[in-house]
Write a structure and sequence with these properties.
heterodimer, A: about 625 residues, alpha/beta, Substrate Binding Domain Of Dnak, Chain:A, Domain 2, Rossmann fold, 4 domains, six-stranded parallel sheet, 25 helices, 16 strands, B: about 170 residues, alpha+beta, Alpha-Beta Plaits, 6 helices
Chain lengths: ~625, ~170
């Protein structure tokens, strides 16, 4: 058993909870993953098409059976169509999240959402100027119009270096409207429309760019306006942040719209009084996944864990409420919560779950709903079964909240110190490591080993999402982690008092990395594809990661994936993604599950870029 | 000792062809899906999912006693292991005359074109459980002794009969 939990996670708190789960007979994602073995080979290769009812069709990768679907679609067409649908789904997730934030922003500036306010008026002013409008109300309208607009550009795409924008225009992949690109993906992939794999993938690039430089960036910027632009703050991470004698409210999902209100409600003296009346010492809000990242970097709310920790958090027996919004929430939580006193509370009209209590959240009444949720958790505290309580005493300190603005501030007001360090070679390059957990790899194994390899080799790491949380749990987000970095990077970190791994936020905040990359490229007078930089998603699983990887490559960033995307069924598509794309957009994908080898690929790429820039 | 064989529960096949794919991968050089699809020559499956009379039917070598394919093989390439009962072929002795393929009542002897030799199920001798059985998500393929398989079938039949007897009307 001990061996098995080590195969499932490298996080000691997860290992401890997995043993608890096994003893108690509680099923987790890892058990269900085992039950799915072996997984379907047609699916793994992307060779199954279910887009019309003449099928389902599949192509025999060994050449003996069918080489075409009923309509005549070859493996190249089927693989490319499936990939395009994944990109569309991922872009839709980020962009629909952005739409909700933009709608909230609109209600706030119209005075219709009294629970919220403008926390970063300076950024609001900058955005008003950037959009060329004259008021917050006009800005809200202009941003919301970008979802449904028919012709481009999407304003934030103009933040890219001019060379990059020209390239997008030349290739016909400069996004026109956020929703338009997603809809067009669905149109092109339905029966009998786009059957040219190159044309399909170009639309994939355009859709992904509308996510990275559109939906995701809108979400990030307006969240900053509404809740404040993150600045460095210390907190703690891992299951040990759950409190034995306080009401634990876990916020999970992706949007800060609700979690910010939950934090406010939990700080309400009336609620704290109520909590004490019911026998607890207070109210502890903890985060999971990107909702956790948002709350962590703006409010210093401690982090319970990343994606594969969600069931383990319930299994501690001290989760008085598990409050969820959208994305990456396992439907398994309902049944698991049923084994405990935990109230599993869904809040989005878009996301309901079996076994959940639905307490629907609306912008106009946000704080009231949040108070109701916190009250439910407070009242539930007394229902805990002490026999089922097990909190691993494991947590790490972390320094988080490195928005582009706060990085520039940490550097003393401009990027020059960083550019200087890159030119000198103290900082060899920048590695953006992001993405999910996936039981195909032990939890955090890919993340932590890759990041350690990179910083050891003087690559400054910027991180978001589940990688950021893996690093937080592993103690890599504290300034002391500079000791684990190579000599050059260590010196830079110590001089600035920063960790060698910078937490830049949630998954939509990968847009912050794009902004930083564009700023660095512009300062050097080059394109993003010329930078000594590389990206990786060592444990990716979500369609959102497919969209992210695609906009990274489309923006000129070499990107290494740690799990195989379902594209190998077409050697043409695989070759386009892993080499051909380099001649088109100046960057391509690589796939390498071994984090040590993957880090080497990134470092080799960075060294090659340095050479091309004439840096030693 | 009674040997285990690959049995088919005929009412269960979903036609997903996972068994065919797993078989080809197991008989590849790399033994991995992602590696095998770029091998030259491509690996070959040894069992076949056919559709007849509206039913999906996985066809897999029955390793017959006194197997016709062994009987007609004039070079001694096709042989039956006296202990395990597995019918296999020695590649180096096969001359590609296809007598075995012509006589097999199930049509489960294929050929490797480049080398012009017969290929057939070897029941994955190196594995505890053949790759096709391990890959089957529907419990259609069962690796069991004849006695064990009959017990599975009897229990299923008993459950069916019990339901019929208990159902009102």
């Amino acid at each position: 058993m001990a061996n098995e939990v080590r195969d499932r996670s490298i996080d000691p708190a997860s290992q401890e909870m997995l043993e608890v789960c096994q003893r108690a007979g509680l099923e987790t994602a890892w058990d269900r993953f085992d039950r799915q073995q072996p997984q379907c080979g047609f699916g793994e290769l992307g060779l199954c098409c279910r887009n019309c009812n003449m099928g389902p069709c599949r192509i025999d990768p060994f050449g003996e059976g069918a080489s075409k679907g009923v309509c005549g679609a070859t493996s190249d067409i089927i693989v490319a169509r499936n990939l395009l649908r994944s990109i569309a789904a991922g872009a839709a997730a980020h962009s629909d999240h952005a739409r909700d934030v933009a709608r909230t922003f609109q209600l706030v500036v119209e005075g219709k959402a009294p629970s919220y306010s403008i926390k970063d008026p300076a950024k609001l002013e900058r955005l008003i100027k950037e959009y060329g409008v004259d008021s917050p109300v006009a800005l809200a309208a202009a941003i919301l119009a970008e979802f449904g607009q028919q012709e481009g550009p999407i304003q934030f795409t103009r933040r890219a270096p001019p060379q990059r924008q020209e390239l997008w225009k030349k290739l016909g992949i400069d996004p026109r409207g956020i929703d338009r690109e997603i809809v067009e993906c669905m149109h092109r992939t339905t029966m009998g429309v786009d059957n040219d794999y190159v044309n399909l993938i170009l639309q994939g690039l355009r859709t992904a760019l509308a996510d990275g430089w559109g939906g995701s960036m809108i979400a990030t910027e307006l969240q900053d306006v509404l809740f404040g632009t993150p600045a460095p703050v210390f907190s703690e991470a891992n299951l040990g942040v759950l409190e034995p004698d306080q009401v634990n409210v876990i916020v999970h999902g992706h949007e800060p719209l609700l979690s910010e209100m939950v934090v406010a409600a939990a700080n309400d003296p009336e609620m704290i009084e109520l909590a004490k009346k019911f026998g607890s010492k207070g109210i502890n809000v903890a985060g999971l996944c990107c909702t956790g990242n948002e709350a962590l970097m703006r409010q210093g709310v401690p982090l319970a864990g990343n994606f594969l920790s969600q069931e383990l958090a319930v299994a501690t027996g001290v989760a008085d409420a598990m409050v969820v919004d959208v994305q990456c929430i396992m439907p398994a939580l309902g049944a698991l919560a049923g084994c405990f006193h935990t109230k599993f509370i869904s809040t989005s009209p878009k996301a309901k779950f079996p076994g959940a209590v639905h307490m629907e959240f609306h912008e106009e009444t946000a704080l009231e709903t949040a108070k109701e949720i916190v009250r439910t958790a407070v009242l539930n505290y007394q229902n805990r079964d002490p026999a089922k309580v097990h909190i691993p005493q494991i947590k790490s300190r972390c320094m988080v909240g490195f928005s582009v603005e706060s990085i520039v501030a940490a550097l003393g007001g401009n990027l020059d110190p960083l550019l200087g360090a890159i030119k000198m070679g103290n900082v060899r390059g920048i590695g953006a490591v992001v993405g999910c957990n996936n039981p195909k790899l032990p939890q955090d194994y890919g993340h932590i080993n890759m990041v350690l390899e990179l910083i050891k080799n003087n690559v400054l790491v910027v991180t978001t999402g589940c990688n950021a949380q893996a690093c937080a749990k592993a103690g890599l987000l504290q300034p002391e982690a500079a000791e684990k970095a190579g000599v050059g990077l260590k010196g830079v970190c110590k001089a600035l008092g920063i960790p060698p791994v910078l937490h830049m936020g949630s998954c939509v905040d990968i847009s912050r990395i794009l902004v930083a990359a564009a700023a660095i490229a512009n300062a050097l007078g080059v394109d993003i594809s010329d930078l000594p930089a590389a990206a990786a998603a060592p444990e990716w699983m979500s369609e959102k990661a497919v969209a992210i990887g695609t906009y990274a490559v489309g923006s000129g960033v070499y990107t290494v994936l740690g799990t195989m995307p379902p594209v190998l069924g077409s050697s043409a598509v695989a070759a386009l993604l892993t080499s051909g794309a380099r001649d088109v957009v100046g960057a391509c994908f690589a796939v390498e599950p071994d984090p040590f080898k993957a880090a080497k690929l990134m470092i080799d790429h960075i060294d090659g870029q340095r050479k091309k820039l004439g840096l030693a | 000792m009674e040997m285990k064989e690959v049995f088919v529960r005929l009412d269960r096949c979903l036609g997903c062809k996972s068994c065919e794919m797993a078989c080809a991968v197991e008989h590849s050089t790399s033994k991995s899906l992602f590696g095998s699809i770029s091998e030259k020559p491509l690996p070959i499956r040894r069992l076949y999912v056919e559709k007849a009379e509206g039913q999906n039917v996985p066809l897999v070598c029955r390793h017959c006693t006194d197997a016709p394919c062994v009987a007609v093989c004039r070079t001694g390439a096709m042989f039956q292991d006296t202990v395990t009962g597995i019918v296999d072929r020695k590649k180096e002795k096969c001359v590609g005359c296809w007598m075995c393929a012509m006589i097999c009542p199930y049509g489960v002897i294929g050929r490797q074109k480049e080398a012009r030799v017969a290929v057939k199920c070897d029941r994955c001798k190196d594995l505890d459980e053949p790759a096709c059985v391990r890959a089957c998500p529907a419990g259609t393929l069962v690796f069991a002794t004849e006695g064990e398989f009959m017990e599975v079938m009897r229990k299923a039949a008993a459950a069916r009969m019990a339901r019929m007897a208990l159902s009102p009307g």
